[in-house]
Write a structure and sequence with these properties.
The protein is about 30% helix and about 20% strand. It contains nine helices and ten strands. Helix 4 packs parallel to helix 5. Bound molecules: adenosine-5'-triphosphate. Adenosine-5'-triphosphate (ATP) binds next to strand 2 and helix 1.
Length: about 280
């Protein structure tokens, strides 16, 4: 069964005094457990509008979203918002999900560890930090004491605290330098492999999407114009827009190497995932 099923989604933005903008025009896609689906397209093509609907932050104008087989109820339509925490989103700006005034330890477990005592919470914070490759000492620090790449790791750790079965990552490395971005991509790859969650990875950068995604969907003017296994789409693009995207990637031939992406994921990370028992199972 797919974790996420998006069926014929239309999103029309309406603002008073402005003509409506049809940002998403009948998009369907699905994500399986352990699969990374990449969504690529230029700025303004509707990726974020689709992402917000996929995680239930916004309601679609029409179409349905099913998460783990059940219809996803958009947050603003709920009387008492109780987000399904097994569906997590990582944003471009890691500041968005971290409070500047609280220590990392105090905010990593927001809303997911009410039943844990202090010792258990400390252990859980240490486990999450290890999962994203950060030292336990990070627990007592504040977000401003970390680099952009480290802050994105912390944002990912915070999302992982809920033991998600699906992560939607919307331009998660756009704000980072090339090296940090390659590290975060490697980290996300490792986490998907170790934890078995699914991921919708959204980016304007086709070479990044190719590096991480099993399947790629190319979005243009609110529609998916081409989709398929990432390697196939890269080697034999069918749609003229996909060819344009590939041709627009600077200074490369058919293969672009990302720094650090050739290395194997660290075993400590692998061990942390399995030893800690973080699986696709239900939350405690
Ligand atoms: N809340 C909104 N109200 C009105 N128009 C909107 C709103 N959000 C997005 N749009 C418009 O919808 C279209 C798609 O925007 P969206 O942010 O989904 O695209 P995107 O591919 O994610 O681009 P970017 O990467 O630049 O965010 C754009 O024309 C945008 O101006």
């Amino acid at each position: 069964m797919s974790i996420l099923d998006i069926d014929d989604i239309v999103v029309t933005h309406r603002r008073p005094g402005a003509p409506p903008v049809r940002a998403v025009r009948g998009v369907s896609l699905s994500v399986e457990p352990g699969q990374v689906v990449g969504l690529v397209g230029e700025s303004g093509c509707g990726k974020s509008s689709l992402a917000r609907v996929a995680v239930g932050i916004e309601a679609p104008t029409s179409g349905t979203v099913r998460f783990e087989g059940r219809p996803l109820e958009p947050l603003r339509m709920r009387q008492r918002p109780a987000p399904d925490r097994r569906l997590q989103m990582v944003f471009q700006n890691p500041y968005a999900s971290l409070s500047p005034r609280r220590t990392i330890a105090s905010q990593l477990l927001d809303g997911v560890a009410e039943n844990l005592d202090r010792r258990q919470r400390e252990a859980e914070v240490a486990r999450l930090l290890a999962l994203v490759g950060l030292d336990t000492a990070a627990a007592t620090r504040y977000p401003a004491q970390f680099s952009g790449g480290q802050r994105q790791r912390l944002a990912i750790a915070r999302a992982l605290a809920a033991k998600p079965s699906l992560m939607v990552a919307d331009e998660p490395v756009t704000a980072l330098d090339a090296f940090s971005s390659a590290q975060i991509v490697r980290l996300l790859q490792s986490l998907v492999a170790e934890l078995g969650m699914g991921m919708l990875f959204i980016s304007h950068d086709l070479s990044l999407v190719r590096a991480i995604a099993d399947e790629t969907a190319v979005m243009y003017a609110g529609e998916i114009v081409e989709r398929g296994p990432s390697e196939q789409l890269w080697e034999r693009p069918q749609h003229p827009y996909t060819r344009t995207l590939i041709a627009a990637i600077p200074e490369i031939g058919p293969v672009k190497k990302l720094p650090g992406l050739d290395e194997q994921p660290p075993t400590a990370l692998s061990n942390a995932g399995t030893d800690a028992g973080l699986t696709n199972g239900a939350r405690p």
